[in-house]
């Protein structure tokens, strides 16, 4: 889950927040990770307690709940696939001088080949190494940046993010922080797969989830620090162009790690985002395939899963072509969409974790209920403010 989360939300949203506003949004990133926690934790907790996926739980609540999840999940799948595929293509422009649209097609076809041919198991093992390399290099870069000469000029005045014009950016940043909430359903399915080959206690499943979740929250602040220390106050802003953005992102590392590290960091970041793309296609396809199977009461087939994957990638490519290489506008659109659907996904998970489908000892207690209510208030409040901003701007 950590590998799936540390993609666009961290490399793009957190780094951009630091570059544009310094440390001002650090508390907001931590806050949104905190208030989303109960809704993400539902995936591990429900499956560890019942041996079933969240989708089975939705169906037990009523057919309409699973239909609502599957419908919104379909929209999110196409949009998210487009977002991560274009980001991967943007990183690929550092090595291959082709258009982002063509590179996005190559990325999607490569992802499908890995998944359909069954070679994702190898990538799954490599993901741990890739994430370790990216995390280590980012921590080193931030440590060096703290000791580097300041880039802020003496007369520079940092702009405040708490302005009406930046509501869209704030909502977009929180949309994928640390990841879309429907990832909780992926986590649920991954845990079921893991249980087929290893004995996992409820306590171990919850510990594993908590460790991954805490890691993503800390790294979000680390990426914000990199943007703040290296780019904030320098007079440079991230470009909306995917190719230019990728180059600027790698420049943040090379400025403190040395120019010779540019292609090494570029390779690690590319592999990180590519693994995220494959994970996104795999996770969304599996949840959609199972959702539709449960609704139609049909048997599981590899052909069915493959058709879902191909359909998601085809529609995702259509969105990429529509945005014509404008990476930041596409990611902002996808992240805003994720934030607006977060409220419904969060409510579905909360309802399930407080329902009679669970043993009383496994349901959320007063602490998790209180945090859930705080989270719902937070999410609904920001969603209403954003809708008002969208109508009046």
TrEMBL record:
Transmembrane segments: 27-44, 65-96, 102-122, 129-152, 164-190, 211-231, 263-284, 305-323, 329-350, 371-391
Protein name in UniProt: Manganese transporter
Keywords: Membrane, Transmembrane, Transmembrane helix
Keyword Membrane: yes
Residues of the signal peptide: none
Origin superkingdom: Bacteria
């Amino acid at each position: 889950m950590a590998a799936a989360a540390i993609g666009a939300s961290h490399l793009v949203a957190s780094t951009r927040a630091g570059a544009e506003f310094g440390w001002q949004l650090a508390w907001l990133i931590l806050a949104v990770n905190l208030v989303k926690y109960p809704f993400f934790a539902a995936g591990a907790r429900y499956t560890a307690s019942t041996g079933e996926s969240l989708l089975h739980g939705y169906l037990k609540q009523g057919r309409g709940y699973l239909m609502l999840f599957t419908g919104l999940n379909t929209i999110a799948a196409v949009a998210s696939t487009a977002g991560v595929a274009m980001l991967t293509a943007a990183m690929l422009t550092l090595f291959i001088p082709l258009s982002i649209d063509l590179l996005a097609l190559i990325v999607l076809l490569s992802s499908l080949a890995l998944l359909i041919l069954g070679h994702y198991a190898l990538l799954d093992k490599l993901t741990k190494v890739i994430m370790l390399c990216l995390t280590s290099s980012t921590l080193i870069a931030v440590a060096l940046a703290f000791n580097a000469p300041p880039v802020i000029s003496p007369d520079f005045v940092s702009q405040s993010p708490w302005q009406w014009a930046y509501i869209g950016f704030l909502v977009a940043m929180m949309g994928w922080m640390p990841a879309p909430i429907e990832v909780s359903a992926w986590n649920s399915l991954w845990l079921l797969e893991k249980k087929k080959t290893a004995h996992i206690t409820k306590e171990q499943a919850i510990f594993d989830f908590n460790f991954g979740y805490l890691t993503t929250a800390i790294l979000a602040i680390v990426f914000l620090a990199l943007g703040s220390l290296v780019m904030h106050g320098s007079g440079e802003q991230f470009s909306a162009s995917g190719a230019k953005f990728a180059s600027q992102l790698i420049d943040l590392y090379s400025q403190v790690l040395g120019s010779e590290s540019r292609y090494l960091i570029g390779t690690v970041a590319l592999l990180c985002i590519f693994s995220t793309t494959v994970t996104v296609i795999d996770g969304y396809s599996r949840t959609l395939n199972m959702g539709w199977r449960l609704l139609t009461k049909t048997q599981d087939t590899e052909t069915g899963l493959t058709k879902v994957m191909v359909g998601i990638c085809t529609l995702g490519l259509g969105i990429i072509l529509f945005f014509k290489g404008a990476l930041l506008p596409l990611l902002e659109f996808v992240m805003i969409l994720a934030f607006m659907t977060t409220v419904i996904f969060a409510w579905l998970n909360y309802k399930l974790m407080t329902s009679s489908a669970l043993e009383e000892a496994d349901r959320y207690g007063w602490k998790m209920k209180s945090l859930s209510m705080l989270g719902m208030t937070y999410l609904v409040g920001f969603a209403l403010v954003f809708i008002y901003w969208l109508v009046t701007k």
